[in-house]
Amino acid sequence: MTAESIKTIAVIGAGTMGQGIAQLMASAGYTVMLYDVQSDLTRAAIASIRKNLEVSVEKNKITVEKKDEAINRIEAVGDFRMLQVDLAIEAVIEKIDVKQKIFSELEKINGQDCILLSNTSSISITQIASVLKYPGRFAGLHFFNPAPVMKLVEIVKGVATDEATIELLKEFSSRISKSAVIAKDSPGFIVNRVARHFYTESLRIAEDNVTDFPTIDALMKTSGFKMGPFELMDLIGIDINYSVTDAMFHAFHQESKFRPSRLQQQKIEAGYLGRKSGKGFYEY
Ligand SMILES: NC(=O)c1ccc[n+]([C@@H]2O[C@H](COP(=O)([O-])OP(=O)(O)OC[C@H]3O[C@@H](n4cnc5c(N)ncnc54)[C@H](O)[C@@H]3O)[C@@H](O)[C@H]2O)c1
Q1: Which of 61, 186, 245, 281 sits in a 20 to 30 Å window from 263, CA-based?
Q2: pTM of the entire structure?
Q3: What is the DSSP letter of 8?
Q4: Rounded to the nearest whole angstrom, what is the distance from the C-alpha of residue 119 to the centroid of ligand 1?
Q5: What does the alpha-carbon distance between residue 68 and residue 217 come to, in Å, rounded to a whole number?
């Protein structure tokens, strides 16, 4: 497989990231098959992509034709066996057994050179690959939210990933207009490891009642950050953000600097997951 020969892409998971990745790939000219275990979510995701593209038309960022072409390239797929593609990217819940099962199933319906990618933020690429027959063509391709907007991607090389796969992904990233950085497989890769403290320390400041979270957000924005930590956690999904912290805490042998926050855990227990549930640290 070469980057040039990639034409069809499967996006598995139609949540926050799957939706963004599907929009990005379709806008870059690829035929996209979007699959989610909850098939109604796939249709909702396509409706939401259409809305996003309409906003881009209103802002004169793209033409009506480009919007229509992109939407027409995305197909909602209800049967997993239809996902016969050149490249598949998984963006489902952060659970290793779920991800491993998806890749094992993808191997059964696709040839040996189909590129398999995970968008995981915190699960070991090496470990996901351990169940694969041909792990050389598997890697991490970690997008940031919102995927169509954020320029950076991390290409994550697991122990068994072939160098040729990394070279292909460098070329592919440039074709979808992303700046790629190569990271060795390590908990949190690069960005999430650095950014973890932006969240955990802000949560601790709020828990210690040093000040409230709107003040922390306002302060960080005044200091030059585009979003405050609480606004960003609401955008990412409080559950997703928490699970990344929790995974890193365990991966680094309970190092206290990665300890997850009780305040964040309580939001999840209450079902306040951020923008996607209409309420998180803020109301939407
Ligand atoms: N949210 C972020 O900002 C962000 C950023 C980068 C990477 N990630 C990673 O992307 C992945 C997805 O995160 P998200 O925020 O989009 O989550 P999300 O909760 O918004 O969406 C997950 C989707 O996966 C679907 N799903 C669950 N099991 C499935 C299965 N077996 N087959 C098909 N679909 C299934 C769910 O129905 C849901 O629609 C995670 O691995 C996460 O770590 C998230």
Answers
A1: 186
A2: 0.93
A3: E
A4: 9
A5: 38
3-state secondary structure of 78: coil
Mutating to test ligand 1, I would choose from 99, 121, 125, 190 the residue with most ligand atoms within 8 A of its C-beta, which is 121
Q: In this structure, what are the phi and psi dihedrals at residue 221, rounded to the nearest 5 degrees?
A: -70, -40
- CATH of the domain spanning 191-277: 1.10.1040.50
Per-residue pLDDT of 198-251, as tens digits, reads 999 999 999 999 999 999 999 999 999 999 999 999 999 999 999 999 989 999
* CATH superfamily placement of domain 3-184: NAD(P)-binding Rossmann-like Domain (3.40.50.720)
For residues 160-189, average pLDDT: 97
Q: What is the pLDDT of residue 51?
A: 98
CA dist 66 → 47, 142, 156, 248 (Å): 16, 26, 31, 40
Burial class (CB in 10 A: 0-12, 13-18, 19+), 151: exposed
